[in-house]
Specification:
This protein is mostly helical. It has one domain. 46% of the residues lie in helices and 0% in strands. Helix 1 packs across helix 2.
Length: 83
Amino acid sequence: MPASPHDESEHTWHRPDHVLFGITKDGLVPPDAPKNYPTDMRAFGQTLSDGDIWAVLAHIKSHWKARKVLEARREMIANTRRR
């Protein structure tokens, strides 16, 4: 499966930052996906430093401007921290 777009139309913004980081660094593998999940999302951990990955994620997130998306992310992040 091809990776989803990272804009407000898809599910990327539904994931907490640490999950987005893990998927970018290690690819779409457990614990962020079922074992042997079919995807074209490759790992970038051998290509990008952790700082580079965080910078890419910050750039992607800077394009999420819809109030609905931002409010949903704030709530999700708050709920993630409570666990």
